[in-house]
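TICKET #2291
ISSUE: user wants both folds in one file
ATTACHMENT 1:
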Amino acid sequence: MPQTCNRQRSSMKWLILAAALSLGACASSPPAPMNAAKADYSYKIGPGDTLNIVVWRNPELSMSVPVRPDGKISAPLIDDLAAMGKDSTALARDIEKELAKFIRDPVVTVIVTGFVGPYSEQIRVIGAAAKPQILAYKQKMTILDVMIAVGGITDFADGNAATILRTSENNAQYGVRLKDLVKNGDVSANVEMKPGDVVIIPQSWF
């Protein structure tokens, strides 16, 4: 009797698991909107970026500096200035304020030459991609751009069941047809990305 009950419980577990998988397969997210980029988007500086700081008429103060993991920079006459989350213009004005303590009317230009971006705006690709990775967001970036960067999807990917988790919209989830786009060249499946998007590519069960 105990063995019979154990077998029944085991069978019930498998039935519950199969039902859960079936429901998961049937559940679908609304398709991702074709257009998502904002016209007024401005790149935000993040840890790992490389900045070229140019101080007009002061070449000894001009240099290339990295943004540290804590989001700050150090430069001649400047210690631990926060850079993360600012655009290049805002950071240039902050540097001018710091340098004004030592030189008269400084004029500063900041040029971003190595792009990583803040963590909150990076694009993440997980699951059955050829090379899952983190990418810096770029204005008008599309899911096709992302797929090219990660080398497409694996042979075992369920590409048309992929989703975009949109952190900028309270983690709303949208469906994307990656198989149609990558394998069949259906450009109608191409959609724009938004900063902070997470692309989730499941494996096929068959």
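ATTACHMENT 2:
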Amino acid sequence: MPSPETYAEIAPMRRDEPLSQWTTLRIGGNAEMFFEPHRPEKLADLLTALEKDDVPWRMLGAGANTLPPDGGVAGAIIHTGNMRRIFRDGDGLRAWAGATLPSLVHTAHGVGLAGFESLVGVPGHVGGAIAMNAGSADWGIWDEVYNVVLWMPGEREGLKMEEFTPEQIGPKYRDGNLNGAVVLEVHFHLEPQPPKVIKDRQDDILQRKNKSQPVSISSAGCAYKNPPGDSAGRLVEAAGMKGFQVGGAQISELHANFVLNRGGATAADVRSLIAQVEERVESESGIRLERELVIWPEPL
């Protein structure tokens, strides 16, 4: 592997960065190299260089559905936090991968564009939201996408950035179907509406979330995808696992699809917790829950 300083010429880098500072669960060991590119083309250049040199890498947005390992991560972690620009573009908005979802919701409301109300109160970055098709039970962020610019893994020499429509990508429920590609920029097509109408809808959604979700405690959001025609939270609660705790990790007593860090939780605590939840739910209902929480493997 070339010297890390070689990559630092492309994007700012820090060594041994604690990942617990960058995830909403506040869990994770140190990253060997931690990069924060400032522009989409720099992100593409960095990914291309790392791939060329066979350096392992992972993307990290707001860390809202991510569980890094206690033992840290070798190679490169690429954080999109410096890529926050949002632009007005015709009847929509164009956003870089690191734009936060709260800023996206705020900007859309401010210019009278509807479509992002379901994201109110949701942490995360645009890139991660596109990768997982973040949203509500009956809506996903891809519903508002006009096109997306992706960095492509090296399947075609020389072609690393390409524009795609939703029809070409085929996103699914809680799955952007990116197959290893990385979001650089997204163009959203939205519906013009009076800002007051948009704000009233946001306030109603936020009020309902605040009543039903543990918004004041460190969590990773929903741990599981909802099975067809059912609710993961209902299944976990019906299996008697609401409030179940391992070490500092707990299933929320308010909403059973949320895993909380009650203080001092480790990745090992969370792994043990969700493994027991999944086993109990499958035993009680016959349904194997599918994780929405992305768990990075422990180092070998």
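RESOLUTION: both attachments delivered.
EXTRA DETAIL ON ATTACHMENT 2: Residues 151 and 161 are 5 Å apart (CA to CA).
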